[in-house]
Sequence to fold (276 residues):
Amino acid sequence: MLSTIAAAALPILVVTLALGGVTKLATAGREESPGALARLGPAVLMPERFARPALYACSLVELALATGLLVVDHPAARWLPAAFFAVATYVLWDLRRRRPDVGCGCFGDVSAAPVGLRSMGRVAALTAMAALVAVQNATGLPALTGQTAAWAAGGAALLLALSPEINEIVSRLRHRAPCEQRPMPPGRALSRLRASEAWRAHAGSLLTDEPSDMWRELCWRFFVFPTQGDAEVVFAVHLSGRRPAVRAVVVGADGHVTSADDRGDASLRESTPVSA
Fold:
């Protein structure tokens, strides 16, 4: 029976560690307001300049532990996750005692709610699962049987019930900010631009790959690139959707729009300043 429970707990541990690592990487790599990262997890107990490196380090450790459980057949690969979750249990207890106003940061910025009994119960349950996996020498993906699937479903349901992040996710989905108010790093909009047909149509005439100017208006991010003949190409990237619209116009040295793509409508012309 214990071996079956351990086999069911193993994929739960792998998914939890991988999800925690990926979400921390995404949060650390995202442009945040000053001090935002320092309000997540144990980073609040260290100087602000160390918050981002600490988040990166923790995410890489979690990804390494998840990989070890899958591919390394060695006692260390099974006991290290147990030690990790045991330390995390103590850290959350200490964090709740010293700074009850901050979130655990377990899954990045979605774990911003203050640490409570649910978060501590979840990490304690993960510690018990990891210890059982280590004791039973479980490794790799288990064979899917009726009993294993039932125990895995039960364990997953327990962790979901102990996850305050569910409330935050539901709240974000129900009260999603309109496009005009959603943050969008300029680098992400620039990546969308460089993957567009409008960029490929004008890339050969651009004098540099980096914009000389950029600004945002509502749901559009504008980029200006110098081009041949003392002209400039102004690109407009829509900030919503998986395949956002991209517009482009060429502005001459006199400030007048000399050409536009077949989709460059009047809204782009009106948003393009004469001195662009």
User: Anything to note?
Assistant: The first helix runs from residue 2 to 29. The chain has a mean pLDDT of 80. The beta strands are 213-217, 220-227, 231-238, 246-251, 257-260. The longest strand covers residues 220-227.
